[in-house]
Each structure stands twice: as C-alpha cells, then as structure tokens.
Specification:
- By secondary structure, the chain is an all-alpha fold.
- The chain has one domain.
- The chain has four helices and no strands.
- It has helices at residues 2-26, 33-62, 66-92, 101-122.
- The longest helix has 30 residues, at 33-62.
- It is a multi-pass membrane protein.
- Belongs to the UPF0382 family.
- Keywords: Membrane, Transmembrane, Transmembrane helix.
- InterPro entries: DUF423.
Length: 124
C-alpha cells in the first residue's frame, strides 16, 4: 500500500507542478484572471494533498492501519474530484462541473479526519 501511495504522491506532485507552470505560462493569455485563479486553486490543493499522500505512505511503513488506507484513498479521490473538476471547469467553461468540486472537498476532509484517527490510534 505504501508503494501505491508513494506513486500517487509522486504523480500528483509532478503533474501539479506541470499544471501550475502550464497555467502560469500557457493559459495566462487564454483564460480570464478569475478562471486562472480557479485553475491555480486546483493546482494548490493538488500539491498540498500530494504531500498528504506522501505522509500517509510514510506512516503506513511505520504503522500500517486500515484507516490510513482510507485516508490515502480519500486524498487521491479528493484530488481527482476537487482539482480535476476545477481544471475541467476552467478549460471547458462548463459551469455545472463546479457541482463536483465540493465532493472533492468532502473527500479531503474525510482524508484528514482518517489521518487524525490513525495518529490517535498510534499513541495507544
């Protein structure tokens, strides 16, 4: 499981940096400043939660717990739903994609909750 989360963290970090650079250089002239900020929010959350996936992977090596697996899955799902919906919204202009974004936010919250629960259980 640690390997999967490490690979997801590396992929998320790599693509987050690449997408951030793409937005700053390739999309600056094509998107409104509002949509550019929305895209950058997607990259910001992707990068932060890629680091969270890295933490989950390292914790898994120390103390594998089923709740850590849930945490990692929720972080990965959150990146897909939250950041992915923001990327698609800005690139396609389909505003209804914004309805998916809160589901990604809920996945992020669940991931952090499960990570905290794992930490609590490690103290026992």
């Amino acid at each position: 499981m640690a390997r999967v989360f490490l690979l997801l963290a590396a992929f998320g970090g790599f693509t987050g940096v690449a997408l951030g650079a793409f937005a700053a250089h390739g999309l600056k002239a094509r998107l409104s400043s509002e949509y550019l900020a929305v895209f950058q929010t997607g990259t910001h959350y992707q990068l932060v939660h890629s680091l969270a996936l890295l933490a989950v992977a390292l914790l898994w090596l120390h103390a594998p717990q089923p709740v850590l697996r849930v945490s990692g899955v929720l972080f990965a799902l959150g990146i897909l739903l939250f950041s992915g919906s923001l990327y698609l919204l800005t690139l396609t202009g389909i505003s209804k994609l914004g309805m998916i974004t809160p589901l990604g936010g809920l996945a992020f919250l669940g991931g952090w909750f499960c990570l905290g629960l794992a930490a609590w259980r490690m103290g026992r």
